[in-house]
Design a protein that fits this description.
Blueprint: H1 22-25, H2 46-88, H3 107-188, H4 200-273, H5 279-287, E1 319-326, E2 335-342, E3 347-351, E4 365-368, E5 373-374, E6 381-386, H6 393-397, E7 402-407, H7 411-425, H8 429-435, H9 448-451, H10 454-457, H11 460-469, H12 475-500
Antiparallel strand pairs: 1-2, 1-7, 2-3, 3-4, 5-6, 6-7
């Protein structure tokens, strides 16, 4: 006869993977539980909470990417507006555009090329914004939605399993406590009668029954969580693959934009480099050859220029050349060389030199000859009395009538000068200019010997007295002149006697 088997000896369901370790002795984060505890003191939703928190992290990560792409799209739109501002700087026609050649390979074409390529950049940024919003961003939004749905599934599925485990554990714990209560009562008073349902034997079997159901629920919940964890690995692979594909599209889009922009700028550069350095200038010269200076034309020269009255007879000197004049200024003594001219206007002018170009040819001394008196010739010397009417240094120093002594290089030159000055004093300067406008210095009827006779020309004393009466000669000068007159008369008488012999 077979021995009866106790219900306790029958096989009960066991918890899977519950080898006694340090990790299973305490409440583990991964949902492990102790094998020797009928009702483990653990949070059945701890694993679910951790997985939900991880899904939340992925969801936020996806949100950051959405914000990144969305902000990039906004920047692209802003960039298009900025390039519209850049385009406006060259949208107006070029000022003074007629200075540039309107044909190919010129500055005008370069600006047209800049306008077209800059407009291309405006369109490119708008197109990039459209692609970011229409292709990249929707992919991330769908991924975001998938993560949210995954979290909902986890909450609904894991919550049911956790609730069932918690309920089974509560029933098991209740019967364990009831078993302990009645087992202690039987131990204390064995003679006391108890209810059949409270028999510790019956209660123990009831605990086994409920513990079995609890373990089944725990293992079912565990299997569900394991399935969720396994699906998490696949789901995260999907998340990362989606992100990687999105970034690949993003790279293709933005990288292509950079390549296009580089190509547009390269086209602008090529348009500018195609202009030959002298292209615009040569065309400008051709268009304005009537205004610009011809480099092949000869430079202006005084020898090629004429002007009204350039050769008028009044502009030609009666005589001109170098003379020496005795200085009358202060302690200076001797003769100073100057350039003298007798003009048809009957002036005797003194200049520093005969150069009309280095400095202004202003006379340093000017004598109006009709108001002057000329003395006789003494070899290469002769003298003229009169008032300097110039604004030069000599004229400023001598405002009164004074006698100026001149010295020519040869007696013949002195005679020419004397005759010319004499003719102007006598009022014949204009006649000389009319008959011979180009420096007509001809000898007069007066012989050199006769010209040296001052009394034959004009009595010096009578003229000087006349000037003195007009107040043009100082008294001291007049007295000196009277003495010189007496000496001159004596010399004349001696010369006449010699001639008679």
């Amino acid at each position: 006869m077979a021995s009866p088997t106790s219900p306790a000896s029958q096989g009960l369901p066991t918890r899977s993977n519950t080898v006694r370790t340090t990790a299973t002795a305490t409440t583990a984060t991964g949902g492990g539980m102790s094998d020797d505890e009928a009702v483990p003191d653990e949070n059945t939703s701890e694993t679910t909470a951790l997985l939900l928190e991880r899904l939340q992290a992925w969801k936020h990560m996806c949100g950051y990417l959405e914000d990144y792409v969305s902000s990039t799209a906004k920047v692209q739109k802003s960039q298009s507006k900025d390039y519209e501002k850049i385009l406006k700087t060259i949208s107006e026609p070029l000022r003074e555009a007629h200075h540039f050649n309107s044909g190919p390979n010129g500055v005008t074409e370069m600006f047209e090329n800049m306008k077209a390529n800059t407009q291309g950049m405006v369109n490119m940024y708008l197109e990039t914004e459209k692609n970011l919003k229409g292709t990249i961003l929707p992919t991330l939004e769908r991924l975001h939605k998938e993560i949210k749905n995954k979290a909902k599934e986890l909450k609904s599925g894991a919550a049911k399993g956790s609730k069932a485990v918690d309920k089974a554990r509560a029933l098991t714990q209740k019967h364990i406590e009831l078993l302990g209560q009645h087992a202690a009562a039987v131990e204390a008073a064995a003679s006391n009668k108890i209810e059949p349902s409270n028999d510790p034997y019956v209660l123990r079997r009831g605990v086994n029954y409920r513990l079995n159901k609890q373990i089944i629920e725990e293992n079912n919940n565990r299997n569900d969580i394991l399935a969720v964890q396994h699906s998490f690995q696949q789901f995260e692979n999907h998340i990362l693959q989606t992100v990687q594909n999105t970034f690949n599209q993003f790279f293709q889009l933005m990288g292509g934009q950079n390549d296009r922009q580089r190509a547009l700028y390269a086209d602008i550069l090529s348009s500018a480099q195609k202009i030959p350095p002298d292209y615009e200038w040569l065309n400008f010269v051709m268009r304005n050859e009537g205004v610009l200076v011809n480099p092949d034309a000869p430079a202006r020269s005084m020898s090629n220029i004429t002007y009204p009255n350039q050769d008028h007879r009044a502009t030609k000197s009666l005589i001109e050349g170098t003379l020496e004049r005795k200085s009358r200024a202060g302690i200076l003594k001797g003769y100073n060389t100057g350039y003298f001219v007798v003009t048809p206007a009957r002036y005797l002018h003194e200049f520093k030199d005969n150069d009309d170009f280095r400095h202004e040819p202003t006379p340093e001394l000017s004598l109006y000859l009709p108001d002057c008196v000329i003395g006789g010739i003494d070899g290469v010397k002769f003298s003229v009395k009169g008032k300097d009417v110039s604004s030069g240094k000599v004229g400023n120093a001598f405002h009164t009538t004074t006698e100026l002594h001149f010295k020519a290089s040869t007696p013949a030159d002195a005679e020419k000068w004397w005759n010319t000055v004499k003719s102007c004093i006598d009022g014949q300067g204009a006649h000389h200019a009319a008959t011979s406008p180009i420096s007509p210095i001809a000898s007069t009827a007066t012989t050199p010997a006769g010209s040296r006779n001052v009394s034959a020309v004009q009595p010096s004393g009578s003229l000087e007295k006349e000037l003195e009466a007009k107040g043009e000669i100082p008294e001291t000068t007049a007295a000196q002149d009277h003495a010189e007159e007496a000496t001159a008369q004596a010399a004349t008488e001696g010369a006449g006697a010699t001639k008679k012999e």
